[in-house]
Amino acid sequence: MVDTANKNITPWEQIDINKQSEGFDVWKEIDEYEEVIQKFFREEIHPERFKSYRLNFGTYGVRHHPDGTHMQRIKIPSGFIFSEQIRVIADVVEKYAGSGHGHLTTRQDIQLHYVKLENIPSVLRELAKVGITTREACGNTVRNITSSYLSGICPDEIFDTLPYAIFTTRYFLRHPLTSTLPRKFKIAFSECENDHAMVRMHDIGAVAQIRKNGKEEKGFRVYVGGGLGPVPMDAKLLVDFVSVYEFYPLAEAIIYVFHKYGTEERKFRNKARLKFLIARIGFEKFKELVFEEFEKLKRVKNVREELERYVENFPLPAPTKTGRADGPKNEKKLKKPKFKPDPSDKTFKLFLEKYTFKQKQPGYFGVYIKPILGNLKPDEFRFVADIAELYGAGYVRITPQQKILIPWVEEEFLYDIYYEIRNKGFINGAVTEAQREIVSCPGAFSCKLAVTHPYNLAEYIGEVVGDLGGLRVHISGCPNSCGQHHIGDIGFYGGSAKINGKLAPHYIVMIGGYLFEQKARFGEVIGKIPAKNAPLFVKEVVELWKKERKSGEKFYEFCDRIGLDRFREILAKYSKVDPNDEDVFREPGLAEEFKMEAEARGECAGSLLDLMAINLFDSFRNIYEIENEIKINIRSESIKEKILDSILKCAKMYVYLEGEEPQEEEKILSVFAERILPKKWFCSDWSNIREKYNEIKSKNFSELNEDEIKKYIIYAKNFIKDSEKAFVRLKPNLKIQECLARKEEHVPGD
Fold this sequence. Notes:
The chain is α+β, with helices and mostly antiparallel strands. Helices cover 39% and strands 15% of the residues. The protein is built from 24 helices and 20 strands.
């Protein structure tokens, strides 16, 4: 943990996401990534192997662009980011993003589109200078951990979950299991029962609780197994209360069970999420496996002291300070207002109604910035950084609705910050409120899987409707739900249909989604509509809502009361189109005719390489299990079994490349020793592998001393590491480049 007695320390150094205070060398990691990129350019690494490598660094392929141009996702844990960090984001957008903007995502990340691959290491280095990482932002990993953007200022909060959410990021970043999961894994935290983080659509959802048993004890209600995508499922209640100290071994137990038992899920990428594992084995069996592992981990994973120190030293919000309440004074914060409120200013009244949030702290407000579709240009990022320092606490929170919340604005400064926001164009008559409220993924603007361009639809809805009347509209370019269409009052996702035999862009329409308050209500599909007419459908639904809603009624309650048939009737009117109308075959705002160009497989999807990777990942898990077991009983026979299993699986990885799939131990080791090792793919000498394997197999671990057992563990670990490094050198022709004399690169998962 960082020495917080040092007053010159920055807030991000206190948070220390990369654990640099504990010796982690983030610069070496980036250097090694750059070496692998250069290998890719020289065609010395298999494209599929390179893809899995770059995804672990948040580097994602983009539509209609060669392998030299990518999207770079940046992890912003809990959407919590300081002004100094925002300015660096502005710089990298300006220098490297071909799109000219940064995109705020529904998972509180920031994405840069159209970044040249050769520039990725430079982006990562600039971000690392201010404590920002992209590690595990994509791929089969624990993705960006989200939390309620109101935590710390919410009037209904049970306790501030932000420090615990950030600690969770540190805990699982570069964890032995979390970059080699069957599929992506998402975690969220809420500070109150209103659940602004929508925990039940996550793999793990945690809601703050306080148990009074003589004294107050902080903990979480934990849900597990949720997710959106083409098959949305709600998370089920796992425990009603687990202490904050035991939450981490519980979460680790859930991840372990997913890693170990998700074997069937690994075979079918579209069904590789935790929710499908639970559906296959049953929730009760899943709970049994989790709690069995949880009991083991509690004995070896005591985080109490580390967690207490981290939470105590966390840079808590302090409006007149930088970082903590006992930190240095925020000299940039204005001392008195510059402007006098104009009572006749109607836009100011709109601002107070829709752009402010009254904090639990008397006299303070949160103020929203609403960039259209979550996109900001470099100067807009810098503007946000400046006003967060001038009027707030020098930090902001990115929301899942693609907005920015600036907390800790004193009431007397509300007109001043409104004046600044209005002058910058974030609230004016040039763009409708509807356009600022709609949530949308980039879709076919950049995504290989997208069918349609939701950006364009959002713009046209905003022009046609103007005011959504408080309705939440979510749009995705495909069924995968990056725009979270399942949770909107009105949700759309991109599709297509033929009209008189000709393909036309359409959207599937969903109604009545709601996931706040720990509810799990996904929108109901009511049909399909031509893209051209979708804005007209929204307009009529909004008019119906404004006309017939009851006071205090939520939209999903309104849907239940009037029935979905009312919406189907509206949809039917706009589903019929004139086949002679050329606009029906174009997306809104696009001149060219619609074409189906979506790819069937996503970036996070393999083959022989998948088979090899699974063996490697199982070996990682074996070592992870061994390192936990030796703390309890180093002479366990299960340790011997895991050592043998790891050696066999790593050898088998390379036997696959010979076109063979032997099952017998002796055959696997013989082929490896006689046909693989002479190729010089490995850096160390493993010529004795058959003898060593049989030696270990013959031993009774209960009779060995600790040093002998550790010697065998080290042997297995070194063989796994060498296997991993060789895997990185897999070339496009499925041959391995010979071991290099210079130092080998680090690989995610090491």
